[in-house]
Amino acid sequence: MAETEPRPAEAEADVVIVGGGPAGLSAALNLGRARASVVLIDAGRPRNAATLRSHGFLTRDGVPPLELRKLARAELAAYSNVRILDRCVAGALLSSPGADGLRFITAVRGGRPGTPPAVASRSVLVSSGLRETLPAIPSLRAFYGMTIFSCAACDAWELQDRRLALIGETPDLAGRARLIARWTDRLTVFTNGAPVVDTVEEAELAASGISVERRRIDDLEGDRGAVSAVRLVDGTRIEIDGGFVRPQWHPALDFLAGLDAERDDDGHLVVDGSGRTSIPGLYAAGDAAAPGPQQLIVAAGQGARAAAVLVHDLVGVRTAH
Fold first, then answer.
1. Using CB atoms within 10 A of its CB, is residue 310 exposed (0-12), middle (13-18) or buried (19+)?
2. CB under 8 Å, gap of 24 or more: what pairs does 222-227 form?
3. Whether residue 151 sits in one domain with residue 126
4. Domain boundary at 245, 265, 295, which?
5. Which residues have a Cβ under 8 Å from the Cβ of 147 and sit 6 or more positions away?
6. Within 10 A of 113 (CB to CB), how many other CB atoms are there?
7. pLDDT digit string (tens) for 49-91?
8. pLDDT (tens digit per residue) in 21-48
9. Which of 47, 54, 70, 105 is the residue whose CA sits 20 to 30 A from 41?
10. ω into residue 97 within 30 of 0, thus cis?
């Protein structure tokens, strides 16, 4: 059978959650407490796996991301109505309306023996996050999550007042530079040869003490995760103590190819203020929803809000959300 045609469901639930990040785990907890039956499909490959410490999450500032997931999983274990399918991905999601109220069938790929090949559900919450592509710099991954980061709000505090780099090849680079300049007055923007900072923006950045380096990058230098310099193709070395990179993000939504859900220009699912997509019964929270990447605590809040609204919708109760 084609991958876009899920096999007959061997499991049923009120809600299928695709993605086990902060949004999906938070939604699962709140749905579980509302006595909804939940199946959470988790590939186990979080985007922040390279990050040593997560920041900005109230009561958990500085906790390792994997520890945060472990704590959430331990809490979910208390709810027998929440089932987690580990190391699985959603192969396809199709609308399959039936008289019993089951509106979707989600195909399941991978997993341990006994994992159902598909799950039928009344609703689906998409919290599958993003894939990210970093600039093609050979050693970048060796420093990513240790002294090179992607989120200023998450990690700039630890790098404040140091010599920092901002590396990227996207048109929003100048705006990101102005943001990072809140934490340091020693910032160099590296476009890696891409024409993404125009002369007007460069002049504005220069007036704020921010340098723009347009030459291509040969590689980064450093040791054991501590970056020390950006080496350009002509051999020039610019010493730094840390920095940020602007990845290119791609919503992980291949499994939705069979559904015509509205998306924004970057491919994220368009949702209302409560996580409803353009398709009744289909919700989204976290990085998969517009506008995209966000802090863990914001994603978790979105998951909780979507769960509350989803419960109202399941029983047909009007809500102000």
1. buried
2. 222/139, 222/142, 222/143, 222/147, 225/142, 225/143, 225/146, 225/147, 226/143, 226/146, 226/147, 227/143, 227/147, 227/148, 227/165
3. no
4. 245
5. 159, 222, 225, 226, 227, 241, 242, 243
6. 4
7. 667 788 889 899 989 988 999 999 999 999 999 999 999 999 9
8. 999 999 999 999 999 999 999 998 877 6
9. 54
10. no
Domain with 270 in it: 11-131+248-315
Asked if residue 46 and residue 148 are part of one domain, the reply reads no
Q: What is the CATH number of the domain that holds 78?
A: 3.50.50.60
At 196, the amino acid letter reads V
Map the chain to HEC letters. Answer: CCCCCCCCCCEEEEEEEECCCHHHHHHHHHHHHCCCCEEEEECCCCCCCCCCCCCCCCCCCCCCHHHHHHHHHHHHCCCCCEEEEECEEEEEEEECCCCCCCCEEEEEEECCCCCCCEEEEEEEEECCCEEEECCCCCCHHHHECCCEECCHHHHHHHHCCCCEEEECCCCCHHHHHHHHCCCCCCEEEECCCCCCCCHHHHHHHHHCCCEEECCCEEEEEEECCEEEEEEECCCCEEECCEEEECCEEEECCHHHCCCCCCECCCCCECCCCCCECCCCCEEECHHHECCCCCCHHHHHHHHHHHHHHHHHHHHCCCCCC
Cα(41)–Cα(65) distance, integer angstroms: 19
Tokens representing 246 are 């602007």
Q: Are 283 and 276 in contact (CB under 8 A)?
A: yes
- Percent of the chain, pLDDT > 70? 95
For residues 142-158, one letter each, b for 16 or more C-beta atoms within 10 angstroms of the residue's C-beta and e for the rest, the string is bbbbbbbbbbbebbbee
pTM for the model stands at 0.91
